[in-house]
Design a protein that fits this description.
two-stranded antiparallel sheet, mainly alpha, 7% strand, 2 domains, Chitinase A, domain 3, 319 residues, 13 helices, three-stranded antiparallel β-sheet
């Protein structure tokens, strides 16, 4: 799994610096006396799509920072960065490289995501109707155990046998489930720990939909009385380890969770992000001094313009 990149990308910061005030300083020479100056490089770069993208990204990042920078501290960024380091452990550097990132660019990426989050909250606030709709789909985060059987008739029969053994167990059902998971589960990543699965809620996109739907119907200490079929994986038997009590009303604590879920969903919606970025730019009112770059923000301000056909306004870096 790769790190998720910020919607604006982390486009060539070093290159971006060259788009500032370029002069006639020589940046490269060739045998025979020919040379390339900063101004020549700038003139060439600004005519390219990538050069224009670097400038637009710089403008938007500066606008976001001006409007919301005080809300995102270095401490917040480092905390999330360290969470990634802990999550990936010894594989952290490898995952960074696989995602085309460095430690510095990951931190910049995290900061941009946080700035966008605040921009989304201000320019696209969550409505009461959205909260109510999200609440209908809401499920608290739960922890389950599962036993996975093969995706064939034998797997179906084994699942039925596991359920029968659970039904007839005289002692603690969870203890019995752990024994059966170690004996029957075909998933080596969880069999030895009794089928224990990472906690998940209604927004989880990595868990099989049929698995989630069946799990959310269980109360603590209950297990599925019929095998849960997944075309991708096979047959599941699921045990609910944690409390699974959904509140009847939207409490202040639940409201915060719902707002976070909705904001996260909006940040994954390129159309909504584009609309928010447009508002950020409009408030910033950037003044572009170079006539050749006057239209560099048109992909954001006017998505239907000819300039917008050149790039994806919500994800210009193609990430």
């Amino acid at each position: 799994m790769k790190f998720k990149k910020a919607v604006l990308g982390v486009a060539a910061v070093a290159t971006a610096m060259l788009l500032a005030a370029c002069g006639d300083k020589t940046i490269a020479t060739i045998n025979g006396g020919q040379k390339i100056t900063e101004s020549e490089y700038y003139s060439s770069l600004k005519s390219t799509a990538s050069g224009k993208q670097v400038l637009s990204t710089m403008i938007i990042n500066n606008a976001l920072d001006a409007q919301f920078g005080k809300k995102v501290s270095a401490k917040d960024v480092n905390a999330e960065f360290n969470t990634y380091k802990k999550q990936y452990g010894s594989q952290f550097s490898q995952q960074l490289a696989a995602s085309g990132l460095t430690a510095a660019s990951l931190k910049e990426n995290i900061r941009t995501q946080k700035l966008l989050n605040f921009a989304m909250q201000q320019y696209s606030p969550v409505s009461k109707s959205q909260l109510e709709k999200q609440f209908k789909a809401y499920q608290p985060k739960v922890t389950v155990r599962y036993i996975l059987l093969k995706n064939n008739d034998d797997g179906k029969k084994q699942a039925a046998q596991v359920i029968s053994d659970l039904n007839n167990a005289k002692g603690d059902k969870q203890d019995e489930f752990i024994k059966l998971a170690k004996k029957f589960s075909t998933d080596p990543s969880t069999a030895n720990n009794g089928g224990l699965y990472t906690p998940f809620d209604n927004t989880d996109t990595n868990t099989d939909p049929a698995f989630k739907a069946a799990a959310f119907k269980l109360k603590k200490g209950e297990y599925t009385k019929e095998a849960v079929f997944s075309k991708q994986f096979g047959y599941f038997v699921i045990y609910m380890k944690s409390d699974n009590d959904k509140p009847s009303t939207i409490t202040p604590a639940i409201k915060k969770i719902l707002e976070k879920q909705l904001t996260t969903a909006n940040l994954n919606d390129q159309t909504k992000v584009s609309a928010v970025i447009k508002k950020v730019i409009q408030k910033a009112d950037p003044q572009i001094k170079d006539n050749d770059l006057k239209d560099v923000l048109q992909a954001y301000l006017n998505p239907n313009s000819a300039a917008a056909q050149q790039q994806n306004p919500a994800n210009p870096a193609g990430n």
